[in-house]
Amino acid sequence: MATMIDTRGLMQQAEAQCQQRGVRFTPIRRRVLEMIAGAPGGLKAYDLLDRLTTEHAAARPPTVYRALEFLSDQGLVHRIESLNAYVACPCPEHAHGFQLLICRQCGRVEELHLDEINDRLSHRARELGFRVDRQTIELLGYCDACLQVANEA
C-alpha cells in the first residue's frame, strides 16, 4: 500500500522550505506540486500540462518543465526515470538519497530512505574516482494489494 501524502502539510512545508532558502514558490509551482501530490503513481509532464491548461489557458510546456525543474531542485518531487513521470516527495526535509518501489500493476510509488545503500554506493564511487551528481534507484515489482488481487483470481 502506498504512503498517502498529506498534501496540505506538504504544501506548508514546501512554502516554509522555499521561504527559508529564499526562492519563490509561485502559484504555478504550487499548483504543479499539488497535482503531483494528488497522483499516487506520479504524473508525466504532458499530463500535468493538460491539467494545468484547464486552469491556466496560457500554460505551455516550458511552464511545466520550469516548474518541475524547480520542484526537483528543491527536493519536493522526484523524477521516476523508468516512467518519465514525477512523484511528490513525502519528506522533502530528508537530505539524503532515496529509493523508489514502483508497482507494475497499479503504478503506486513508495519512497524508501535506506541511507546505508546510498552511503555504500557513494563510497565505492569515490574509491573508483567517480563523483556522483545524481543517483536514482528504482525497484519495479508488485505491491501487496495487487499481489492479493492476482492470488484471488
From TrEMBL:
Q: Which GO terms describe its cellular component?
A: cytosol
Cofactor info, note text: Binds 1 zinc ion per subunit.
Positions annotated to bind Zn(2+): C103, C106, C143, C146
Family, per the entry? Belongs to the Fur family.
The keyword Zinc is assigned to this record: yes
Alphabetical UniProt keywords: Cytoplasm, DNA-binding, Iron, Metal-binding, Repressor, Transcription, Transcription regulation, Zinc
The record's note on quaternary structure and interaction partners says: Homodimer.
**Where's it found, cell-wise?**
Cytoplasm
InterPro entries tied to this protein:
FUR, Fur_C, WH-like_DNA-bd_sf, WH_DNA-bd_sf
Keyword RNA-binding assigned to the entry: answer is: no
User: What GO molecular function annotations does the UniProt record carry, in alphabetical order?
Assistant: DNA-binding transcription factor activity; transcription cis-regulatory region binding; zinc ion binding
Cofactor(s) for this protein? Answer: Zn(2+)
- SUPFAM superfamilies for this protein: Winged helix' DNA-binding domain
What is the protein's given name? Ferric uptake regulation protein
Record GO biological process: negative regulation of DNA-templated transcription; regulation of secondary metabolite biosynthetic process
Q: What is the superkingdom listed in this entry's lineage?
A: Bacteria
Q: Which species is this record about?
A: Halomonas korlensis
Tell me where it mainly resides: cytoplasm
